[in-house]
Amino acid sequence: ELITMTDDYLWFEGLPFPVIGYSYEVLKEAGSQFVIKDEDTVLVTYPKSGTNWLVEILCLIHSHGDTKWIQSVPTWERSPWIETDEGYKLLNEREGPRLMSSHLPFHLFPKSLFTSKAKVIYIMRNPKDVLVSGYYHWTMAKLCKQPESLEQYFQWFMQGNVSYGSWFEHIRGWMSMRHRENVLLLSYEELQKDPRSAIERICQFLGKKLTPEELDSVLKNSSFQVMKQNKMSNFEMVPEALFTRPFLITRKGISGDWKNHLTVAQAEAFDKVYQEKMAGFPKGLFPWE
Ligand code: A3P
């Protein structure tokens, strides 16, 4: 009831969130009271970094390559969102070990994480690709303010005036966790380049031993082509009230699509801000640099 307009955001702690599916109360309670348990696996991303892909991979690893789960239950029920009204409720009712997703920035994340041994996977992606992917997503989503052009979305993104706030702040905050034993840092780019190795790293991190055949199945069934056909994973199931049709989360699935979208001037402006905001990180940490 706080905000019901679909052309705006829900503001929480100074950050914009989607209006539909979110509430001030749940965002507040999740951050302060939600209990993350040692046996949980938590997937953290900035929106459009490959969240749904990772959920598919994690579910397939969990089921040793069996596809029953991913073919019968939608992504958001397999790995509920901590900060959404529906996800928060689902998680509170669920027995452990739980799989859960979140886009929350570090400073708004449930405090219980810091004393738990839960396994955290953070997946990052070239921010220019995140921007382009986000432009398509938020243009189709009827959940909050919709951009009218890429140029307009570009301005919003650079200022952090998009759902979940600034990409730069998100990554800066979460990078502070990267040396923890229970945190695995992955990139969309390395998953693209060598998915088998990336999936092996995930298995090792989770302490899951898969046979070569099981691993083959994880690889095949989480591939872009197969995922695009899975209506439990491609967003075909999302009600039309929430997304303009046709909308699939599996849009293009490549690295470097920004080159087909951003002008030279935009790319240069982006790089300038990037250099200012991302100064101080070690070389080699980010695969897109
Ligand atoms: P594009 O819009 O660039 O195609 P999220 O799940 O965090 O919303 O991220 C969505 C992005 O991940 C989309 O990027 C989507 O195509 C890509 N994606 C989803 N499944 C994928 C897969 N199996 N392989 C590669 N990319 C995938």
TrEMBL record:
It comes from the Eukaryota. GO terms for molecular function: sulfotransferase activity. The keyword Cytoplasm applies. Its main location: cytoplasm. Keywords: Cytoplasm, Transferase. Residues 38-281 form the Sulfotransferase domain. It is an enzyme of class 2 (transferase). The keyword Cytoplasm applies. Its EC number is 2.8.2.-. GO terms for cellular component: cytoplasm. It is found in: Cytoplasm. Belongs to the sulfotransferase 1 family. This is Sulfotransferase. The lineage of its organism: Eukaryota, Metazoa, Chordata, Craniata, Vertebrata. The chain holds residues 32 to 320 of 385 of the full protein.
